[in-house]
C-alpha cells in the first residue's frame, strides 16, 4: 500500500502556497524545533534512522555530527540538481510542497547552527525554480526566514541557485565548486564537505527528499518514522517509476516494500502486450536486475546491495520484453560520455570508448571480442576517478553484458537486433 508521509497533502488545492501549507499544519514542526536544543534535533534525526535520499543512503544525523566545532560559519546546501536519468521525484516535491522543503531546511539549519543555506536547483527545472522562489518570498514575508525567526533568536537566510545544465554538479563537491563560481568539477575527498566545503567552511549537503523528511520527523517523532521500513532502512521512500506500465509516476511506499507490489498495485502492472524483462531500481547508474531478481526483491538498501545493485535516488526504470538491451545501454553510454566533466582520464576517455564500442555492437560493425572488450574497459574504469561518474557509466555496462550477453552477441553475429529485428542502435551514427 502506498504510505504517504511526505506526500500526504500533495493533492490538496494550493498546498504549494504558504496559506495552503499552513492550513494543513505547515510550520508547526519549526515551532516545535525552536523549543528543542539543536543537539536534540540532531539526536532525533539520528534515532529516526533517516538515510540520505539522494543516492548514497548515508545516515543523515551522523553526517550532521561530522561538523567540527571550530567556531567557523556553517552552510547548509540542498541538492536539488536532479539529473539522474529515471529520477524526477524531487521535481514533484518542489512543485507540490516547496514549503515542506523550506521548513525542513530551516529546522536542519537550526540543528547544525547554520545561518545561510542554498537550494541548488537543476538548470532545466524552470517551473520548480519559480515555485520555490515564490515560496521563499512568502517565507520571508511571514517571518520564517531572516532575523530572529519567530522570536527564537535564530537568524537564517536562504537563496536559490540555478545550475547551468550539467549532470556532474549533482555530485556534492562539484555542486560546491559551481556554487562558488568555479567550473562544476568534483574535488578530491578528504577533506569532506562537512569539514571543508562551501567557501572552505564546514558544509552539509542534503537531498530535497531528505530535508523534507526532517519536517515530518520533528512533527511526529523518530519512533513514528521508525514504524515504517526496516531496522537498517527506516521510513518511507519516494520513487519515480517509468516504463511501459499502466500508471507511471511518483509513489511513496515504506522501505523494504516488495518491487512486485509496487509494480502490480501502485503502477497497475505492465501495459497490455508487455512483459517484465529487467529492472533498473535506482536510476541509470545502478546495475540492472533480471525480471526474476526484480520480482523477488524488496525496495531497500540491504536487499539491493545483496543483489549487486543499489536503491540509488529511487529512479525505478521498468524494462519490458520489447526493449533491446544493446540499444538501451547505448543510450545510457551516450549520456555518460556527454556528461563526463573530463577531469579524470579514465572517465573522460573511458566513457567515449564505452559509447563507441556499444555503437559498434549495435550497428553490427563489431566482433565477438568487443563484448569482452566493453566489459574490460568498464572494469578498468571502476574506482579510478575523483567522483563516481566513471563507476556510474561502468556499472550498467558490466551488468548488462553479464546478464544479457546473448543480445550483444546476436547483434554482432546476425547484424540485427534479437528483440526487434531493427533498433535505434543500428541507426545512430
Fourth-level CATH superfamily of the largest domain: NADH-ubiquinone oxidoreductase 51kDa subunit
Shape: globular
Fraction in helix: 40-55%
- Total helices: the number is 19
N-to-C series of helices and strands: HHHHEHHEHEHEHHEEEHEEHEHEHHHHHH
Architecture overview:
This protein has helices spanning 18-23, 28-33, 38-48, 60-65, 89-96, 98-112, 126-141, 172-179, 208-220, 222-226, 259-266, 291-295, 301-306, 325-339, 345-362, 369-381, 389-403, 405-414, 424-427, and strands spanning 75-80, 116-121, 157-162, 203-207, 236-243, 249-254, 257-258, 276-280, 289-290, 298-299, 315-320. The N and C termini lie far apart (45 Å). The strands form three sheets. A five-stranded mixed sheet has the order 6-5-11-8-9. It folds into three domains: 18-226, Rossmann fold; 236-320, Roll (Ubiquitin-like (UB roll)); 325-426, NADH-ubiquinone oxidoreductase 51kDa subunit, iron-sulphur binding domain (de novo design (two linked rop proteins), Up-down Bundle). It contains 19 helices and eleven strands. Helices cover 44% and strands 13% of the residues. Helix 5 (89-96) packs across helix 6 (98-112), helix 14 packs antiparallel against helix 17 and helix 16 (369-381) packs antiparallel against helix 17 (389-403). It is an alpha/beta fold and 429 residues long. The longest helix has 18 residues, at 345-362. The relative contact order is 0.12.
Amino acid at each position: 500500500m502506498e504510505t504517504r508521509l511526505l506526500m500526504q497533502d500533495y493533492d490538496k488545492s494550493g498546498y504549494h502556497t504558504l496559506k495552503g501549507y499552513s492550513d494543513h499544519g505547515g510550520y508547526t514542526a519549526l515551532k516545535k524545533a525552536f523549543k528543542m536544543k539543536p543537539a536534540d534535533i540532531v539526536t532525533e534525526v539520528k534515532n529516526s534512522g533517516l538515510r540520505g535520499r539522494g543516492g548514497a543512503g548515508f545516515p543523515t544525523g551522523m553526517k550532521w555530527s561530522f561538523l567540527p566545532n571550530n567556531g567557523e560559519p556553517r552552510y547548509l546546501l540542498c541538492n536539488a540538481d536532479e539529473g539522474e536519468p529515471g529520477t524526477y521525484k524531487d521535481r514533484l516535491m518542489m512543485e507540490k510542497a516547496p514549503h515542506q522543503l523550506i521548513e525542513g531546511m530551516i529546522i536542519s539549519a537550526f540543528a547544525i547552527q547554520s545561518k545561510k543555506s542554498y537550494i541548488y536547483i537543476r538548470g532545466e527545472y524552470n517551473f520548480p525554480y519559480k515555485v520555490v522562489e515564490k515560496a521563499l518570498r512568502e517565507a520571508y514575508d511571514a517571518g520564517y526566514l531572516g532575523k530572529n525567526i519567530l522570536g527564537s533568536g535564530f537568524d537564517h537566510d536562504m537563496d536559490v541557485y540555478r545550475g547551468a545544465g550539467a549532470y556532474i554538479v549533482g555530485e556534492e563537491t562539484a555542486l560546491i565548486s559551481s556554487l562558488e563560481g568555479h567550473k562544476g568539477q568534483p574535488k578530491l575527498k578528504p577533506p569532506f564537505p562537512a569539514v571543508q566545503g562551501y567557501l572552505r567552511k564546514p558544509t552539509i549537503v542534503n537531498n530535497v527528499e531528505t530535508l523534507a523528511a526532517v519536517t515530518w520527523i520533528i512533527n511526529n517523532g523518530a519512533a513514528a518514522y521508525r514504524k515504517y521500513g526496516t531496522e537498517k532502512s527506516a521510513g518511507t521512500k519516494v520513487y519515480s517509476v517509468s516504463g511501459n506500465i499502466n500508471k507511471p509516476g511518483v509513489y511513496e511506499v515504506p522501505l523494504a516494500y516488495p518491487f512486485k507490489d509496487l509494480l502490480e498495485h501502485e503502477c497497475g502492472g505492465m501495459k497490455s502486450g508487455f512483459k517484465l524483462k529487467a529492472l533498473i531500481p535506482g536510476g541509470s547508474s545502478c546495475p540492472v536486475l533480471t525480471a526474476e531478481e526484480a520480482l523477488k526483491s524488496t525496495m531497500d538498501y540491504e536487499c539491493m546491495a545483496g543483489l549487486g545493485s543499489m536503491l540509488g535516488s529511487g529512479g525505478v526504470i521498468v524494462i519490458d520484453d520489447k526493449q533491446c538491451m544493446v540499444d538501451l545501454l547505448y543510450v545510457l553510454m551516450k549520456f555518460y560520455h556527454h556528461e563526463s566533466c573530463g577531469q579524470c582520464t579514465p572517465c573522460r576517455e573511458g566513457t567515449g570508448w564505452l559509447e563507441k564500442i556499444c555503437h559498434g555492437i549495435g550497428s553490427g560493425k563489431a566482433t565477438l571480442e568487443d563484448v569482452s572488450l566493453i566489459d574490460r574497459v568498464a572494469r578498468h574504469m571502476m574506482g579510478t576517478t575523483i567522483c563516481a561518474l566513471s563507476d556510474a557509466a561502468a556499472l550498467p555496462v558490466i551488468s548488462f553484458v553479464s546478464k544479457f550477453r546473448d543480445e550483444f552477441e546476436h547483434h554482432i553475429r546476425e547484424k540485427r537486433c534479437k528483440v526487434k529485428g531493427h533498433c535505434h542502435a543500428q541507426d545512430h551514427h
